[in-house]
Amino acid sequence: MLVSYPTRHMYFNYPIFIIGYQDERFGYNVTTCSSGYSLGGMYCFGLSSDTNAAMQLLTYRQGTINFLDRTHLDMVEFAGSHPGTAKLTDPRFAHDKINGLPVLTAAFAALLLKIDATQVYQGYVNFTAHITERLVDDAALAGGQFDAEAIVPVGFAGDRGSKVYRVPGEILTPGNFS
């Protein structure tokens, strides 16, 4: 039976990623996010409106989405728990600059974005962007096609009282749900 559960935040295993962006104080920077989705060539994500990342993305209107596997959870935690600091100077955050944006070399996939629209709502900024380029680790390609079984994204689940990172343990494909 479903019952009411009053909480301000609740996440049901959403993919976690690191956003790369231009930063007026540090040149470039990163932060962690788990509130995002894509449809076709559009990518949407949200951040607290009072964060350095949100303010920089509102100013520069471009960024990257970097997807990492479980071996890089220390980067995910660090990027999300040190707001307003120069994180790309840490050696864990090896990166390249592609089209003037930071892309983490440890990522198994990255998206380059141009932000088209923003909406502030109840202390959050919702960013709607179009994907200008998709980058994928060549190990996730088979015969020139994307091999979804080759990647293991990390999910985030939790509420105000707890957080858990989840990694898929098995691969289910249509017709193979038993």
Brief summary:
The protein is mainly β and 178 residues long.
Question: What topology emerges from the helices and strands here?
Answer:
Blueprint: E1 10-15, E2 17-23, E3 27-33, E4 36-39, E5 42-48, H1 52-60, E6 62-67, H2 73-81, E7 95-98, E8 101-104, E9 109-121, E10 124-136, E11 141-142, E12 145-146, E13 155-159, E14 162-166
InterPro entries: Split_barrel_FMN-bd
Protein name: Flavin reductase
Word description of this protein:
With 178 residues, the chain is mainly beta. The chain has one domain: Roll (Pnp Oxidase, Chain A), CATH 2.30.110. Helices cover 10% and strands 48% of the residues. It contains two helices and 14 strands, in the order E-E-E-E-E-H-E-H-E-E-E-E-E-E-E-E. Strands 3-2-6-9-10-5-4 form a seven-stranded antiparallel sheet. The chain has a three-stranded antiparallel sheet with strand order 1-13-14, with no helix packed on it. A two-stranded antiparallel ribbon has the order 7-8. Strand 7 and strand 8 form a beta hairpin.
Give the tags.
single chain; about 180 residues; mainly beta; Pnp Oxidase, Chain A; three-stranded antiparallel β-sheet; 14 strands; about 10% helix; Flavin reductase
Morphology: globular
Give me the number of helical elements: 2
Structural class: mainly beta
Number of beta-strand segments? 14
Question: How much strand?
Answer: over 45%
Q: For the terminal residues, how far apart are their CA atoms?
A: 24 Å
Average of per-residue pLDDT values = 91
Biggest sheet layout: 7 strands, antiparallel
- The side-by-side strand order for the widest beta sheet comes to 3-2-6-9-10-5-4
Residue windows where pLDDT falls under 50 for at least 5 positions:
none
